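User: Can you help me understand a structure? I only have the sequence.
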Amino acid sequence: MGEEVYICEIIEWINDNLSRFEIVKKETSSSELNWENEEITFLRYWIYSHHIYSNEKRRNMAQLSNNLDLHGFILPGKPGIICLEGKQKDVQEFYAHIRR
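Assistant: Let's start by predicting it. Here is the structure, written out as tokens:
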């Protein structure tokens, strides 16, 4: 019951002080507007490998995923497992690169 009092006080304070906080509308460029209208598809790939042992290859995969703004993890061993997610074109580019 006491919690309701605090919520009412918070709402009253916000209403009383709303004018103190100026809302600035950000101007957007035409390139940002085109990006907002673009449909984006996210993917998650689970890649099973016979094995992943090489530290150098794991570093290269981590660097490539950072460059493509992908998220996920690599579990080294036998079998090796890679899980990554991000924009469709970036995930597919990563997969094409590691398949080589």
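Now, to help you interpret it: The chain has four helices and three strands. The mean pLDDT is 80. Let me know which part you'd like to focus on.
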